[in-house]
Amino acid sequence: MNAPIHSSESTVLIVGAGLAGYHVARQARQHGHTGPISIIGDENRPAYDRPALSKAFLNGTVNFEDLHLDDPSNPLEVTWHSGSGAVELSTEPLGVRTADGTFHAGDNVVIVTGAEAQRLPSFGRSGGAFVLRNVEDGLALRERMIEGQRIAVVGGGFLGLEAVSTFLDRGAAEITVIADEQFPGEARLGAAVGQAIRHLHEQRGVKFGPPVYAHSVTDTEDGSQVLNLTNGDAVQADVIVCAIGATPATRWLRDGELTLGPSGAILCDDFGFTGIPGVWAAGDCAQWTSQAAGIRPIGQWQEAVEQARIVAAAIMGAPPVPFQEPYFWSEQYDVMIQGAGRIAQSNEVHILDGSIEGGDLLVSYRLDGEEIGILGMNRMREIKRWRKMRTARVLASA
Amino acid sequence: MSLKVCHLSELTPGEGLRIESVSPPIAVFLTEEGTVHAIDDTCTHQDASLAAGWVEDCKVECPLHESSFCLLTGEVDQPPAKQKVRVHTVEVRGDDVLVELSQEAPNLPPGVSVS
Question: Domain named Reductase C-terminal: which ranges (chain A) (predicted)?
């Protein structure tokens, strides 16, 4: 088996053309990598950024060109192979075979295939519920008539709730959210934040169903659909959107040499190393040691960028890049929700300022009295300051 | 022609002030070093107010992501923003902050237009 090659002239093969893939390539070039870099993407499109798919892209404010990750006036020096996804990883010789039969070799292979939207187990004839993961999904919902329609959104996470706020903006007649929590995000972010998020939507007329799961979609004679809930209730809707999370896009690796976790994620150390020389993984298809331990979040935009940065440095043999505090944001209506720090590990939540009804909450997350996280609604200045001060502290103690 | 946009005493060292009396809005910064700068307030990546960003080393980092804009040149250092912001000429006269707006076309983010 080949030893990993850290030379700046080696070939880097990036499998996946999303946020993590783009940033691995960009960072490798920043580190002075001069060798060939190839990026394989299964979609026949330029690499794009996803956050706007549930917001500005979904309401037509921005177009696909606006989502492109690469800068057309200063493009990355990489070879893009678009339209045929990876189907097989080979360790000897090291490389990946794509669906069209091509073998792509690399001295280092970085797997960044992302995740696929989870769907309800049972669909109606019409194909059932929409999902929102890729630009195709976004286009389908962007082109679907929403004005005057009854919408049901399954899932009370940020993706679903951002879509809710966009649908209301597009004139939906009625929106019902089916989430497994009474107050969305309550378990993860605390009761006050869950209540504040629910209030944000309820004050605009959005309805919340009972805190149960949805299990299937059935079609009715009049062309509308019925969403069936686990408590026996049913929600009638014209459009059903399923936003219940995503699973790592690693089916193609299932019978291979890599170790996959229970979710299907590629298990890696905190440098993205898979244990197989020259094979690395990052972003939503991977689970790094600190994520498996619950210390770092999973599935966040910022996490993919950070991991890409760390993997690129590791491949290049550059000094390790420290993790920053985790960070996420969500735009719902005119409210920007931002959270930072190790919120999942906190055991106390304190309201620092604002109110549940005001859409202006600022809360502190503490672990045994020490502040380890923060969340704000329309608190951009406070959140940025907190993040920068924490980063300074991390760097000072490194 | 210079416009009076704010008082020097309204500015906080290390912070920005969003000025909405001009379109598109601009941000005026007083650095810790005591210099005053004015740039377009809207990040070129997405609609976020740079006045709420983090000011350090004569740069402001967008409050939403990690792109930093140079207060002297408007240049951006890293994604997600790709384009620079305009820089406006500042003159401090007593307690008055006067700004002469750039004649360049602004690089507003997709979906944002001048009202």
Answer: 327-393
Is the CB of A384 less than 8 angstroms away from the CB of B54?
yes
Give phi and psi for A67, each to the nearest 5.
Answer: -95, -10
Does the pLDDT value for residue A123 go beyond 90?
Answer: no
Domain that holds residue A165: 119-242
Q: Do B110 and A26 touch (CB under 8 A)?
A: no
My answer on whether A60 and A82 are in the same domain is yes
Which tens digit of pLDDT belongs to each residue from A180-217? 999 999 999 999 999 999 999 999 999 999 999 998 99
C-beta neighbour count of B94 within 10 angstroms = 7
Domains and CATH numbers, chain B: 3-100 (2.102.10.10)
Q: Do the Cβ atoms of B61 and A49 come within 8 Å?
A: no
Residue A128 has pLDDT above 80, yes or no: no
Distance of CA B5 to the CA centre of its chain: 12
In this prediction, the answer to ipTM > 0.90 reads yes
- Give me the residue from A69, A73, A329 closest to B64, CB to CB: A329
CATH assignment of the domain containing A92:
3.50.50.60
**CB atoms inside a 10 Å sphere around CB B76:** 22
> What pLDDT does residue A393 have?
66
- The predicted model gives B26-52 an average pLDDT of 97
Which bin fits A388, alpha (ψ -120 to 50), beta or left (φ > 0)?
Answer: alpha
Count of the separate structural domains present in chain A: 3
CA distance A159 to chain B (A): 17
* Tokens, residue A262: 């229970």
